[in-house]
Every structure is written in structure tokens, then in C-alpha cells.
């Protein structure tokens, strides 16, 4: 049995093969969804779409509201509608608070929080035409614990902002039958994190994770599949922790 039959979906940040967005798109397609991929680089996202068997590929900077509106319109046209959106596009930076420049701050907020807002606002018209539509935002454990690993204060702020946006949007969009939820991954083994800790720090981190390992992108994708599917049909405004027990609160 597939969990997303006849589901039309957009997944952003899906061009890198070792990333969360790629894993989400792959699992969605395996479960019957038609998926359009959105990422920064046209050549990379087109290559990903070809390999995954996606319904389309569009290059877009999610921090650009006008570009997002255009990309969403381009994605919805071949799909004939929209049932699910997953915003996995994001950046990370570990600069100390005193070293964060204005440009660093605005780029972090514009991509992570602004990108989520832009995608959510731009997809509302198409999502309202579906039944029990779902928007899933990828936040982070950093948004609740205040960063402190590979993400600094501005990263934590951008991810915490997503959690507030999700709750407000869930309250507002529930009557339109749009569910809005967030995932808060812990440390995920991707190119953004791999080799960044050093062996001693990595061992210390692993010792603090009850499940004894970092997450794989597939771990996050499976949680995302749950939030996108009818298995979570009575859940909205939720932040689902996927951190192996590293941050319990």
C-alpha cells in the first residue's frame, strides 16, 4: 500500500543526493506522489528530477518572493493542482554572535524563515483546492535549544521563527483544510554536517544520543511522509522532534 496515492507535491532543497529534500522526494515518489523539485541550481535540480523520476524541476531562490510565486505557478501547472508542500531549502552558519554581519543575518533569516513564509503564502491558493492538504516545514532542534552545534544564534532564530509561523498558519488555515506542521531534526548525516565535528566531539555527541547515532536523511523523510499522509490527518500546528532522543523537553 502506498501512502500518497494521487498526491501532487512540491519539495524544495531537493537537488543534493545526500540531502533531506532528495530523500523526501524519493520516498514520496515511491509512495505514489507526483513531485516537482525546486532548488537553486537548474542543472542540479534537473539532474535530480531525472534520476528520481520527478514530475518536474525548477530553479528558484526561496528567499525571493516573486521568484517563488513564479516557481509555484510553474510547478502547479503540470500537476493540475497541489496537495502537499515540503520546504527543505535552508542554510546554516556557525559564526559567533559578535561576528555575524548584517549580510549574514539577513541572508539566514531571508532563506530559512523568509523562504518558508514565501512558499507557504504562495501555495495557499493551490492547497485550498485539495482535501486535507499538508504543508511541512523543516525546522531544527536548534530552534528550541538555541543552536550551539553547527548553527549559531541567527540560525537558531531563523529555525525558531519557523515554529511560530507554523503554529500561526495552522490556526489560520485549519478551516481551509490545510494542515501546517514542522519537523525539528537533530544532527543529520549530510554534506552540511559530515566531517564538521572532529572525532572527539563526534564521540561526545553520539554518547549523548540515546539511539546512539546521527539521523540519516531517510529518517527525516519517513517522519515527513507521516506528516504529509492521512496517517496524521488530525494533526496541525505540531512540531515533530526527530533527534534520536538527543534533545528531550
Overall description:
The structure is a single chain. By secondary structure, the chain is an alpha/beta fold. It has a single domain (8-235), classed as NAD(P)-binding Rossmann-like Domain (Rossmann fold), CATH 3.40.50.720. 44% of the residues lie in helices and 15% in strands. The chain is built from eight helices and seven strands; from the N terminus they run E-H-E-H-E-H-E-H-E-H-H-E-H-H-E. The chain has helices at 20-30, 42-52, 65-79, 102-127, 142-145, 153-173, 199-207, 217-228, and strands spanning 8-12, 34-39, 56-59, 84-87, 133-138, 178-185, 239-242. It has a seven-stranded parallel sheet with strand order 3-2-1-4-5-6-7, sandwiched between helices. Helix 3 runs parallel beside helix 4 and helix 4 packs parallel to helix 6. The chain is globular. The N and C termini lie far apart (35 Å).
List keywords for this structure.
249 residues; alpha/beta; Rossmann fold; seven-stranded parallel beta sheet; 15% strand; globular
Short description:
With 249 residues, this protein is of the alpha/beta class. It contains eight helices and seven strands. Helix 1 crosses helix 8 and helix 3 runs parallel beside helix 4.
In terms of topology, how is this protein built?
Blueprint: E1 8-12, H1 20-30, E2 34-39, H2 42-52, E3 56-59, H3 65-79, E4 84-87, H4 102-127, E5 133-138, H5 142-145, H6 153-173, E6 178-185, H7 199-207, H8 217-228, E7 239-242
Parallel strand pairs: 1-2, 1-4, 2-3, 4-5, 5-6, 6-7
Helix pairs in contact: 1-8, 3-4, 4-6
Amino acid at each position: 500500500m502506498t501512502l500518497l496515492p494521487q498526491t501532487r507535491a512540491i519539495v524544495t532543497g531537493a537537488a543534493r543526493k545526500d540531502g533531506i529534500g532528495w530523500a523526501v522526494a524519493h520516498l514520496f515518489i515511491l509512495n505514489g506522489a507526483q513531485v516537482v523539485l525546486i532548488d537553486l541550481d537548474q542543472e542540479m535540480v534537473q539532474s535530480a528530477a531525472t534520476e528520481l523520476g520527478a514530475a518536474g524541476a525548477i530553479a528558484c531562490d526561496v528567499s525571493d518572493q516573486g521568484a517563488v510565486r513564479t516557481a509555484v505557478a510553474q510547478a502547479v501547472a503540470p500537476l493540475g493542482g497541489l496537495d502537499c508542500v515540503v520546504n527543505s531549502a535552508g542554510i546554516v552558519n556557525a559564526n559567533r554572535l559578535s561576528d555575524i554581519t548584517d549580510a549574514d543575518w539577513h541572508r539566514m533569516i531571508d532563506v530559512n524563515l523568509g523562504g518558508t513564509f514565501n512558499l507557504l503564502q504562495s501555495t495557499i491558493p493551490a492547497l485550498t483546492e485539495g482535501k486535507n492538504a499538508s504543508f511541512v516545514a523543516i525546522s531544527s532542534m536548534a530552534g528550541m535549544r538555541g543552536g550551539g552545534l553547527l548553527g549559531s544564534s541567527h540560525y537558531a532564530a531563523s529555525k525558531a521563527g519557523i515554529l511560530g509561523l507554523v503554529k500561526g498558519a495552522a490556526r489560520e488555515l485549519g478551516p481551509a483544510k490545510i494542515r501546517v506542521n514542522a519537523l525539528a531534526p537533530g544532527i543529520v548525516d549530510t554534506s552540511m554536517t559530515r566531517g564538521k565535528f572532529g572525532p572527539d566531539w563526534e564521540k561526545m555527541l553520539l554518547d549523548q544520543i540515546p539511539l546512539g547515532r546521527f539521523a540519516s536523511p531517510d529518517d527525516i523523510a519517513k517522519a515527513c511522509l507521516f506528516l504529509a499522509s492521512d496517517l496524521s490527518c488530525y494533526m496541525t500546528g505540531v512540531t515533530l522532534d526527530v533527534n534520536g532522543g538527543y534533545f528531550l523537553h
